[in-house]
Design a protein that fits this description.
By secondary structure, the chain is mainly alpha-helical. It has 1 helix and no strands. It starts with a helix and ends in a 27-residue tail after the last helix.
Length: 51
């Protein structure tokens, strides 16, 4: 019975948090216009390009 009460309290708390965040709204933000420049490492034993 205690586990059922604890689960109900946890569910109510989680629902209250979700409703609060939904009411406040998400943060206003923008994405960067620059792409992420990443490189992929060559596989072991592979010949690097240009060689």
């Amino acid at each position: 019975m205690r586990a059922l009460v604890a689960a109900a309290i946890g569910l109510a708390a989680a629902l209250a948090i979700v409703l609060t965040v939904s009411a406040i709204g998400g943060p206003e933000g923008t994405t960067s216009p620059k792409p992420l420049l990443t490189t992929v490492p060559t596989a072991p034993g592979a010949v690097p390009p240009g060689k």
